[in-house]
Amino acid sequence: MELEAKLRQVCGRIEPLDESAMAQASARLDSLTKPLGSLGRLEEIAIRIAGIKGEALPTAGKKAVVVMAGDHGVTAEGVSAYPAEVTPQMVMNFLGGGAAVNVLARQAGADVFCADLGVNADLAHPGLLAYKVRKGTANLCRGPAMTREEALRSVAAGIEIAAMLVEQGYELLAAGDMGIGNTTSSAALCAAFGAVPVEQAVGRGTGVDDERLRGKMEAVRAALDVNRPDPLDPIDVLSKVGGLEIGGLAGFMIGGAAHRRPVLIDGFISTAAALVAARLCPRAVDYMIASHLSHERAHGMLLEAVGLRPAIHLDMRLGEGTGAVLGFHFVEAALRLMQEMATFESAGVSKE
Ligand SMILES: Cc1cc2ncn([C@H]3O[C@H](COP(=O)(O)O)[C@@H](O)[C@H]3O)c2cc1C
Ligand SMILES: O=C(O)c1cccnc1
């Protein structure tokens, strides 16, 4: 109960966007040497970041991506194209700098953090954010993935990680996931919340064949039948069919919003976490910026259910925060345009 109260308190701290900063940013964009509105969604993003940070002319500041990792008991059903051991192995790869997200983060000038919310293995590395709630979830086809208390602890861990990064001076955050089997859990979450019908919620994830895809669909149906998650109780849904890293990511998004930091959302799993965050604290959505549209088939519908629109579409389906980190580029581009472009007046360019 104490964790529930704390969560309500953090949600209550999320403020509405700063309308005055947004109006000033909008006026500034209209004064720049370009046809009105011609920078399209970049203008929308710049205005929103102004509202989030409460500054008319914000800069991007220090950037961090957090990859939250957790294992999934549902892998016993053969729902992934890869073995569960990949989760801890990839955690070590993130810490060693060799994963796709590390390369993209280096290119974007961002730091990568990796958090263990529930990996099956005992991991020891000085760089790892150790927040293990339990070793992997239980098989959600047979019963709840975790207890309500564990779900709340995963969300609380994400809130704590966001606070720690804000304390370290990070101003722009991105959310990434690692957990073999987590597209199954994410599909079950989408369906449980009524965001996407079951038949459309299940996709190929890491690239399962038709037979495994059918098994994955059965697994999601079984998860909903056996657990009967209550869509009006987001923690109930998270605990029954979610994942530890998904809870962590939802908390991270809520924590970022409570600290007035923009949080870039990645692909399917990250957006499933965004849906949990949105159902817990609707106002947190104002602080989220969608990055890409994943190739995973339900992602578009899921983004829509959260109330987000992706900016780029590169047919990526990796996760890890890779799409979100690409988002650093266009967020920074939007802010630099607003900061650095000449106005009609300063450049002596005729308006009419
Ligand atoms: C080497 C490797 C690196 C990854 N990085 C992210 N994922 C992605 O794939 C997993 C989800 O797909 P499914 O539900 O089909 O298991 C997650 O770990 C996700 O982050 C990876 C998967 C693999 C194999
Ligand atoms: O959209 C994603 O993030 C995704 C899709 C498939 C597999 N892993 C991640």
Mean residue pLDDT? 98
Based on the coordinates given, report the CATH architecture of the largest domain. 3-Layer(aba) Sandwich
Class of secondary structure makeup: alpha/beta
Provide the low-confidence segments as ranges: none
Structurally, how many domains make up the residues?
2
Task: State the oligomer.
Answer: single chain
The number of helices is 15
CATH class of the largest domain: Alpha Beta
Order of SSEs, N→C? HHHEHHEEHEHHHHHEHEHHH
Looking at the structure, what is the overall shape? globular
The name CATH uses for the topology of the largest domain is: Rossmann fold
Write down how many β-strands occur, each being a DSSP E stretch of 2 or more residues: 6
> How far is it from the N-terminal to the C-terminal residue, by CA?
63 Å
> Taking Cα atoms only, what radius of gyration do you get, to the nearest Å?
20 Å
Portion of residues in helices?
A: 40-55%
Q: Proportion of β residues?
A: 5-15%
Specify the biggest β-sheet. 6 strands, parallel
List ligands, each type once.
Answer: alpha-ribazole-5'-phosphate, nicotinic acid
In the sheet with the most strands, the strands line up as: 3-2-1-4-5-6
